[in-house]
Design goal:
Elements: H1 2-5, H2 8-24, H3 31-38, H4 42-46, H5 52-75, H6 82-99, H7 102-107, H8 110-113, H9 117-144, H10 153-173, H11 180-195
Helix pairs in contact: 2-5, 5-6, 5-9, 6-9, 6-11, 9-10, 10-11
């Protein structure tokens, strides 16, 4: 699916753009710098993307397509409890962040998006997609009686996503020297202990 949306060269350009942002900051992502690093002329790069903003929009689309396919597939697994599905989804997400840390600098950087409404909409859509999946799993857990229902699914999913975001940001701020998957899983397990009925007694 993703290969149909983007050419190999576009993917190469977008991934390099994310690396520049991660390494040098968003201010250093210019068409001139990007073209120099990828050994293209600026004119040649413009044949793939019309602007820096279009590169960023493409990068977010690229990541969201991959994330949507992956998360939807995990959420549709049969024979998994609600808790297991949440662990599967966030383990998968944390592994992607650990493997491609540059993407963290892109999607978790508010400074990149605050003055660009199109980019902000993409980030919002990404968050809504993920929250929708988590809402559905939490709701299922509450209906099946495995999760407490003292608050609604959207509140629980907001707590989970906020906790995971904090784990990722802490990992990034402290130089990625820790095990993100291990630390993130520990945070998620803590939240699950608060919402699982089996832990009430």
């Amino acid at each position: 699916m993703m290969r149909n949306e983007f050419t190999d060269r576009q993917i190469e350009i977008m991934e390099l753009a994310s690396l520049i942002i991660d390494r040098d900051g968003i201010q250093e992502l210019t068409i001139k710098n990007l073209a120099a690093e990828i050994n293209l002329s600026e004119a040649a790069l413009y044949r793939h993307f019309k602007s820096k903003s279009e590169i960023m929009l493409g990068l977010l689309d690229y990541f969201m397509l991959e994330m949507k396919d992956r998360v939807t597939t995990i959420a549709a697994k049969e024979g998994r409890t609600a808790s297991q599905l949440l662990k599967d989804i966030f383990t998968s997400q944390l592994k992607i962040f650990a493997q491609k840390p540059a993407i963290v600098s892109v999607i978790f950087s508010e400074g990149i998006f605050q003055f660009n409404k199109e980019l902000m909409k993409k980030i919002s859509a990404m968050m809504e997609m993920m929250q929708g999946q988590i809402d559905a799993i939490v709701k299922r857990g509450q209906q099946e009686g495995s999760f407490r229902d003292f608050v609604g699914p959207s509140t629980v999913s907001t707590i989970i996503m906020g906790s995971m975001r904090m784990a990722v940001m802490k990992w990034k701020v402290f130089g990625r020297n820790s095990d993100l998957v291990k630390d993130g899983t520990k945070v998620l397990n803590g939240v699950l202990k608060m919402i699982e009925k089996s832990n009430e007694n």
